[in-house]
Amino acid sequence: KAGVTQTPRYLIKTRGQQVTLSCSPISGHRSVSWYQQTPGQGLQFLFEYFSETQRNKGNFPGRFSGRQFSNSRSEMNVSTLELGDSALYLCASSLGGFITGELFFGEGSRLTVL
Amino acid sequence: GQQLNQSPQSMFIQEGEDVSMNCTSSSIFNTWLWYKQDPGEGPVLLIALYKAGELTSNGRLTAQFGITRKDSFLNISASIPSDVGIYFCAGHPANRDDKIIFGKGTRLHILP
Q1: Is the model's pLDDT at B56 over the cut of 90?
Q2: Nearest to B42 among A55, A101, A108 (CB)
Q3: Closest C-alpha among B35, B27, B48 to residue B94
Q4: Minimal-distance CA residue of chain A relative to B39
Q5: Exposed/middle/buried for A111, CB within 10 Å: 0-12, 13-18, 19+?
């Protein structure tokens, strides 16, 4: 069974640019959630999508957005990048939602903002 | 908001030693989870706990859901080099079951 696939794995952007990250969940999983991981803050929840609807949202500014497609694939977008957005962005999928806590993570997309 | 206090932040141990780490909160949690992240990888679920007092093992790993529902611990027995990584606790707060909170992680180093 293929795992969670995130693309791109690494990217470098400059301040003010925007970025789109992609996540393909495990086949059959309908929930996709996104997290920002930084050394000082650990894993911070961004948002969760289930059946193309945003079901939960963390405390991030509106520059962070996401969507989910009918095949459960998800994208997240960060506009007007700031230096502090440099982080590892992790996507996780689960069968019915992250309420069970059994999340399957991808390897992440490492974003560097210069 | 709810926070999980995970300790220690990092540990340096000798191969073969037992390891203990814990996670505490000022509020009650319905679920406690332990994940491990290897370098360059995403976190992987080790153990999930759903009931106060529950003690669960997964090989050399043992975790417990504290009876107060405000804490959990993870023990690793007879550590081996592949145990190196970051261990995260996570949980669903009782008053916001739709949220998941992660601790900041315990980085485990094993000395040869």
Answers
A1: yes
A2: A108
A3: B27
A4: A107
A5: buried
Question: Out of B1, B92, B105, whose CB is closest to A101?
Answer: B92
- Here the tokens at position A45 are 């929840």
Q: How far is B1 from chain A (nearest CA, A)?
A: 11
pLDDT at B1 over 70: no
Give 10-residue mean pLDDT values along chain A (114 residues): 90 97 94 90 89 90 96 97 97 75 90 97
Write the CA distances from A86 to A89, B78, B83, integer angstroms.
9, 37, 28
**Under an 8 A CB cutoff, do A56 and B88 touch?**
no
Radius of gyration of chain A (CA): 13
